[in-house]
Amino acid sequence: MVAASPRSPVVRELGPPGPETLAFERRLRRVMRPLAASWRMTPRGVLWLQRISEPRGRRIRTKEGSQVDVTAIGGVPVEWVRGPRAIARRTDDEPVLLYLHGGGYVFGSPRTHRVLTSQLSDALGIPVLVPDYRLPPVATLPAPIEDALVVYRALLERVAPERIVVAGDSAGGNLAHGLLLHAAEAGLPMPAGLVLLSPWSDLTMSGPSVRANDGIDPFIPEIALWRCARVACAGLDAADWRCSPLFGPDALQARLPPTLVQAGSTEVLRDDARRVADALARNGVPVELQLFAHVPHVPPMWGNLPEGRDATRRVGAFLADVLPEGAAHRPDRRDAAAATSDETTTADGLEPESAGATT
Fold first, then answer.
1. Active site residue: 66, 109, 121, 170, which one?
2. How does pLDDT run across 281-322, given as a tens digit for each residue?
3. Which residues are 99's β-sheet partners?
4. Which of 28, 116, 208, 338 has the fewest Cβ atoms nearer than 10 Å?
């Protein structure tokens, strides 16, 4: 295969932030940062974090009118999430967004991220497939990569690769990037696109913003990254590309599809986003990096903010560009606002009409 010519990423610095966003950032910094800084990632601490963050057995935040099918693919538990627009547009050859949730490789699940995945599904008009990959104490890296590969291989058997987009946030961004590097190594077809939302791409924490933004990131302190990485790697070399996909071989990076990277300007992980965009572009991959001024970790997660809704709209525009024409809805500002409004909760996470699981 002929190597693609090096290029530069398209970088969009989006701002300035509105007063609502600045006020929200200050409130989040007062509440979340001290909690994250003080949480000890001991075995007991990890279990408690999973327990308090996991909505299992409680009511789960979900976009109103969504359907959720809980099933398994190749032994890996998954959720199929369809927002109202995806339900209305459902076809036999519908595209799929394979979404890998974040949580520092120590907590998180399809249920903790269901409000985000159901909103994305509604905005984009396509289903979102969310694996419930293994976490401590059951397993650490490379188990999440193994689970993601199982799901991706199975998805390729039923959906053409040009109708698949892979995405992930935070540690899930690490996993999404790592999944495609491993898929490239195995000679598997690449999807139509890759979306990395505030990716934690370097578990050695060598990015300058890890220290420069420590203290101003409203969500994640540097110490929390070190604690999570210690648990996630469990003795593996964090500098190995199988833990930190930022350091993946150029030959594999060059095989990756067009990529969208989003992050907030004050994040400790801002430079992980920058360096991933640079690494992919250097290897000829078309990349766009969108930096949102003062928006917290994982911009589309904050649908309560204008910038969060804009981030969702921009994700939708990217999918509409990389998927076959008309396969995904291209949301405008009104669509993005509608998708992130009218949240509801569903008992045990299941809508009555979604009792039948699909594989």
1. 170
2. 999 999 999 999 999 999 999 999 999 999 999 999 999 999
3. 167
4. 208
